Amino acid sequence: MADTAASQRELSTASGASEVRFRGGGFAPKAPRWVGVVVFVLLIALVQWGTEAGWISALTLPKPTDVLATFGELWQSGLLFKHLNPSLTRLVVGAAIGVSLGIFTGVMIGLFSYARAGLVPLVAALFPIPKIALLPLFVIWFGIDEASKYALIAFGTFTPTVVATYGAVDNVDRSLIRMGQSFGLSWLSIVRKIVLPGAMPGVLSGLRISLAIAIILLVAAEMLGAEYGIGAYILEAGALYDLERLFAGVVILSLLGVIVSGVIGLIERRLLGWRM
User: What pLDDT is attached to residue 26?
Assistant: First the structure.
């Protein structure tokens, strides 16, 4: 192997071409973590400078320092957790229902022909429906309290999770399944040891999209008949044209999305360490 690599280097040098080093990580990009932080800091500094210099209107964007001061007021008054705790409860409960049902349904579609024949057309019909448009219907069915909010978030996360899951099951390498069959593994063992681990990367990728949709639907649900919640807070700030409070609510949602993405990243590193 060493002789082969040496001969390849000699050939490339003789032909005048630059050497292409093999990347043992499978061409996996490894971005430095600090780059994202630097981008955020530079963007915030640019907005701060623009608002102070006057070429960004105060009616367009508030000063980041004013938004930070609004965070301090929310924290000291206790309103931050009064709005955040109900939102987190709705997000966790609704997303847990929708994701768990979506993964189960997607696996059934991927494994069983009758489930695929019966459920794929139904999922295809439900998937394009704008979920926010169904909020009045869920209010009629479940009332204006928490049940309608849970139902909207669950339904919004269900269909993309189903599509991602059965697509991931379909993309499992069939040669691995045939290899398991040739070694005499049972159907259940093949599913547990080959199909589900092979589908997990696609399922987790779909989970990122589903949870992002859940945050969007959370805000929409809380803008209708909720006294507390990030969506209700943003709606109230927008009605008063209080940009500092409005952007504080938007930043909270953004941080929530970053935290959710980070949690999924931790799960990926824990469950998908075999890919490294």
Answer: 52
